[in-house]
Fold each of these.
Amino acid sequence: MQYNHLKALLVDDDEVVQLLVGRYLNSIGIESIVAASGNEAITALDKHAFDFIIMDISMPGQDGIDSVRWIRDHLNPEIRNIPIFALTNFHTPRHTEEILKAGFNEHIIKPFDIDEFKKILHKYFWENIN
């Protein structure tokens, strides 16, 4: 299954996660740009248009929670309303509730589950599936 013409911002400070998730996105036709921190993500959002964001919660500097709040408060509705998927090690129902309350659309638990991610992509981008 290919998700052509989608562009993702992958925000994670772990280079292994960047590499593995980035390769997976590429393999299903999704172009991705990597940011290693919340601050880098904000800079990327000012320079590029994205269809969705995959963001870690725990990062040095501006973390995922602060970043998602900044995005949700943005004046530009195309940035403010972009789907944001948390990719975290946090796995309790309480963590999921806090993540969604902060402004994320979905909570993906590490290690990255490809089948779970495909369901999320289908939910948000079914019209882009080839």
Amino acid sequence: MQPATSEWITKAEGDFNTAMREYRARKFPNYDAACFHAQQCAEKYLKALLQEKNVEFSKTHDLVKLLSLLPEGIGLSALRASLAILSTAAVEYRYPGECATRDNAKECLDICKALRAEARHQLGITD
């Protein structure tokens, strides 16, 4: 595995842990942050896959755009619609006017977990 790929994975795992911690908090949960960090985790795993496949990518937070850059056969195309939801949720809840609920956060985390599991499989991470 390329060193840069490992760095993306480390960053992704940090976001995953933060998303889970905020979702599980008994006192003062921040569901907005859970959604944001779920998106960030997914984004960084997509970038790890692109890095490992030597595919250039620009600075973007659009998960569907990143997914479209992956070579065919990676096994993530079934998540396209879900990733569009996750991309939107990460931005929607960051600003005044909308607040994520526990159900919103669960949906974002479920999408994140699905992408994370497949990305880790594709990258040969077995734990």
